[in-house]
Queue: 3 jobs
Job 1
Amino acid sequence: MSEAQAKSPYQSADPDRWLDDHGDYLFKYAVFRLRDNNVAEDAVQETFLAALKAYQGFEGRGSERTWLVGILKHKIIDHFRRIGREAQLGDESDDGPEHQEFFARVDEWQGHWNTDRAPTDWHATPAELMERSDFWKVFNDCLSPLPQRTVSAFTLREVEDRKSEEICEMLSIKVNNLWVMLHRARLHLRNCLEVNWFKPEQ
Amino acid sequence: MALKLYDKLKHAVRYWLLRTLPTCQQTVATISESMERPLPTSETIKLKLHLWICVWCQWYLEHLKLIRDTSRAQAAAAPEQMTGATLSNEARERIRRRLTNQN
């Protein structure tokens, strides 16, 4: 089989059809990880542009969609690397709030939960939460006040299931620094979800 | 009578442990770290003891796991099944124009 035949069934790049067939799919994939419509739109655009350039490299092996998602994954990682670089150049030292106010400051119970900020029983499962699109809206709103690098570390770890060493390399940080960021993000997000989503009866 | 004594003793042990072990503020940092690497044995014991007597930190750990499990399950789900935003018409047209110019 010649090279040209191997490229079938797609004889030539067809960006118009790509956009119709895969635009929404790629956008949803991107926006869940990047948490911002504009950034996700840019990632989808860059994916199609890169796909157009690299079309010769796609020889019709596997599905077109899998190929495009592969390119998009790289664009998403590029975005996280950029955030890491910018934070490093800007000498960014903010890892996120410490939330001292969650814990008692005085008396013998210093350092233990303040009763009005202590966790409550959520009675929730992943399956229930995933069905609710408004849950992800609250989730993203809760992460939005945190420094971008901290949110990137959180997403790479909790969504993408990346290893510590990989994340440290991508964001140009040390592992102790990563642990602080993850802790701050979790502390903040957990409380924010409790207040804004699970809303315990006071 | 014996029951009362048992309750008193349990209370005393609980109180002593809470005063001796790392605080909740220190424990939540350890809980987070325990999701990143295996803890040294002494830390593991302190964490287990703290969780044994503190339902708040038990829930904290449960919630962090729920957040992780839900995020990863959603990431593994097919994007078609995700509800919520699709590519806006403006963005679609902008990308279409950009791609046409490149072609």
Job 2
Amino acid sequence: MRRYVWLSLFAFLSYSLVAPLLSIAMADLPSTLAVFLSNSVMFVTVGIVIRYRGLSVRPYLWHPRTPYILAMGVLLTIGLLTY
Amino acid sequence: MDYLLWVIVALVAYGLMAPLTSVVTSDVPPAVALFLSTTIFLCLTAVVLVVTGTGTPSDITSPSAQIVYIAGLFLSAGILAYYQALERGPVSVVVPIYGLFIVGSSIIGIAFLGEELTATRAAGIVVAAAAIYLAAGGEA
């Protein structure tokens, strides 16, 4: 099987656990705060991955694709907060 | 019916994310794209939290928050793998396989959270899994 299929399957299995766990937590926590905190964990985790791989964020702050990344952030916010 | 409008807004926003991510990750490392888009998300959501006065500082150390942090780890693993897959494979295959999480989450909800399994819901899960498998071209 191709590598991207394995990655997709792993992504599906891992992400399947997110909604049930958040659902348990949201019995006590406001949904916006829960989504903010879970994405904060992702922010830190991805930051560690970037550091580990020796990648640099700076070149992409002013890059031809930066407006697209900005749009992704806005769409992510709209998608998650309205969901 | 108010919720339906929000569901449609979320659907459109999510629908645009995959092709946009695919375009971005052709030039930008997926982890960097994810890091920057998450930064924007956190800034905008922080504004929403402050403006609406949602939550208290003690919330971030509550037992429920610890469950959220575990969810955050699965979220990180899932999204990083998803971005890597989008970088390497076609959107039309990666997104439907990843979309199986809808079925996965439903099954976990029924198996572990005591949610009711009706014949209609079971049929819906089976049909959704079949639809996603077929949409992925039988590659899953």
Job 3
Amino acid sequence: MSAVSASGRPVLKVRDLEVRFSVKREGLFAKPSQLYAVDGVSFEIAPGRTLGLVGESGSGKSTTALAAARLIPARRGHVEIDGVDVLSLEGEALRQQRRNVQFIFQDPYSSLNPRLRARDVVREPLDRLGIDSPAERASRVAELFRDVGLRPEQERLFPHQFSGGQRQRLGVARAIASRPKLVICDEPVSALDVAVQAQILNLLRRLQREHGLTYLFISHDLGVVQHMCNEVAVMYTGRIVEQASRVRLFTRPLHPYTRALLSSVPSADPTLDSRAGRILITGDPPSPIDPPQGCRFASRCPIAIERCRSETPPLVAHEPDHRVACHRAGEPIGADATRTH
Amino acid sequence: MSEPHSGPLLSLRDLTVEFATRDGTVPVLDRLSIDLDAGATLGLVGESGCGKSMTALAIMGLVPSPPGRFAGGSILFADEDLTRASDAHLRDIRGNSISMIFQEPMTSLNPVYTIGEQIAEVLRRHQDLGRRAAWERAVELLDSVSIPLPGRRAHDYPHQLSGGMRQRVMIAIALACRPRILIADEPTTALDVTVQAQIFDLLQALREETGTAIILITHDMGVVAEMTERVVVMYAGRMVEEGPVRDILSEPHHPYTRGLIASVPHLHAEVSDEPEDLLEIPGIVPSLAEFGQERCLFAPRCPRVSDRCRSEQPLLRGSGGWHKAACWHPEAGPA
């Protein structure tokens, strides 16, 4: 795969990751059901690159990231961060591993401690993980403020005194403070005003260029993903259904779900009629609680056949940089077959 | 589309809504003039706090008071000024003639009544239907918004439905009395993109069928391009640009509109290996205290700013046809 090729050992390597939650079923004595949140997910990210994880709400994007960072337990699978087997770590070794993976969250209003001054928000991970001497930490904080485009005099303010965009800059500074190997960006601009999103996206790209950061980038916004990611994995109810380089995924998508997803995005290009050629899929994703046999997209898929409902399609390589899990990958989707209603 | 010669269905004339704040009284809508023809579609775009939703609330007669009040201008609907209408009369108009759907369908539905009861209630209240007739019509309406098994689904409570289904129910309620205007405030922001496409298809089909005019409030230029014929760009309570969607997207005059379009990473059919950085609109929207000042409120963030912008308020000027912008230094040429 292209992610591994050039630069050697991947920063993040995930193999057959599974996360399940027990959920109560109706009825007093009913056995709890299993919610298949992440169901056999594998991918890797090469140093300095960005992998996008896209999919609709409930598809398992965030759960995958949380399990890879060991913030929630995986039921099965293997996760390596910079060569270290993360799922087997315990105690101090696990704690020290935390510095290598940091998160930028969606909502900078709720993810920053309102009682800490901005400098302490940024400094906290350094204190907690015992990184550098106290004097070095202070100068590191000053450096981080510069890096993310905040002014030195803002160090003593509280989070509520910042605008949404500035707050997210604070969240970025905090995330990169411990010089992590991997930064997980979970919908980092979804809560921001449109005009501010560009500031944060440009900042993330500049920091990646300057510091060689590696990103796992989670978003439901396909325009943002296309702009930010070298490689993209599409998730659907707990599984990766397609993964490819940016260029291939957006120009030659093979999975009917990816094709429907891309064709659903309204285009701002006035010369295009985005409704023409749209693959409209009906209904909602199946419940991840005791999901159906076979391909989970089959119930909404315009070109599903009998086999799709009984046999789970494996994620296989169609091209060196393009994997897809579909028995019908690349088959034509007729306009008549899809526009039902 | 309606005949251009007949008068507009809805006409905001220099509408000003003021809010009382700690810093004094500020116009959150500042001499806003918008026309909407019968059966037309209009997009309202801008950042949060620009007055998009306030415009909708003003039309609906739902401006919270205090702190808000009508301070000037008029809202003419079928030759009647809604800013002077009684509460009872506004209640009749809401739901019957002008309806609204909101961003988060879960919070707009009552969790303790079935969806069938909630739709039937609207019909009994506004259309004087009996219990049985209202229920039957409710099931028909669920069917018209493509809810499968509507007869059975009518007995469901809101929590038993997915987000997309709930928004369909909201649309069914909004359209129950065949309103002349439907105001949709970010109706798909909480929904996934494939469901968004379903909702937009539904709204377009219903509009063609019923001739309801649609005002769509959104921050997404793609949504505007897909759903509306005309667009109004708002900034700090004022209209800064107005025109046909195609003209505005291909040749925006106001630097703010240009920034709104260029700062968002839109999905492109042509994918490059290394995308350029996005254009940034620096800074943030002005605080309420700055609203209403006699200057261009976008000036501090504008790449084309001059002294004139800081001292004199630009008025809307047309550049031929229906396309106009409030800018001393409008841009020409493609975006």
